[in-house]
Write a structure and sequence with these properties.
single chain
Length: about 230
């Protein structure tokens, strides 16, 4: 047992834990937005299954992380999809599309998995990069440990956000804007763009701000039209 602990790469382990805790915030926001229209008894099911699905998805993506980000236009396509998910989350509850805030557990889980798949491209790179500091035989175990540890954080964060959303509906708009912000960053960091141009930080931030604002404006506009 002592030999096992001596072989642990504590820096890599702490890095993975920190990354998972920080990235858990994005998961918590998506899960809370997707589950907000579920009945109180169904919310816990949506949170738990959505969290488990998101973590399993990340484990799969970690294995292909480096090759995924080298595929041209993949992040552009993902950014467009994430932008539309942000818009759909602002639409009225009677909308039946797959990527909207669901009124059933399954529709909420689908929204969570689609959004997390898109958002995880950069995240899994960070996790895989931290794990590479450890011994090769330990790397996957470190990743699994970090992701499992993030489960209670994501579940607690989602539960807290759902309670806040019930009291402050503005959080839904801010969450959708966050998805737009992330989408904007993905659009300008795709491999086909980064390999040809050095995108200035100001341009990246401006794109993120514009996409965040557009998500809210488009979501509100479509929401207003559907209510009329």
């Amino acid at each position: 047992m002592l030999e096992f602990f001596q072989q642990l790469h504590w820096v890599a382990l702490l890095q993975i834990i920190a990354i998972d805790i920080l990235l858990g915030g994005d998961n918590a926001i998506v899960i809370a937005l997707a589950c907000r229209r579920l009945k109180p008894k169904q919310r816990l099911q949506g949170i738990l299954w959505g969290t488990i699905g998101a973590i399993v998805l990340r484990l799969v993506l970690v294995a292909f992380a480096l090759s995924l980000l080298s595929i041209p236009f993949l992040k552009i396509a993902g950014g467009i999809l994430l932008f539309w998910i942000g818009v759909k989350l602002l639409l009225p509850s009677h909308d039946d599309a797959d990527v909207s805030a669901g009124e059933t557990v399954w529709s909420a889980i689908k929204t969570i998995l689609i959004a997390d798949l898109v958002m995880s491209f950069d995240n899994v790179i960070a996790i895989a990069g931290a794990a590479q500091n450890a011994l090769p035989d330990h790397q996957m175990a470190y990743v699994v440990f970090g992701l499992v540890l993030s489960v209670p954080i994501i579940v607690w964060g989602s539960t807290l956000l759902l309670k806040l959303i019930d009291r402050f509906p503005l959080i839904v708009t801010l969450g959708a804007a966050l998805l737009g912000w992330i989408a904007g960053g993905m659009l300008v960091s795709d491999h086909i763009i980064s390999s040809q141009f050095a995108v200035p930080t100001t341009v990246k931030i401006l794109t993120e701000v514009v996409c965040a604002v557009l998500v809210v404006l488009l979501g509100k506009y479509l929401s207003k039209r559907r209510r009329n």
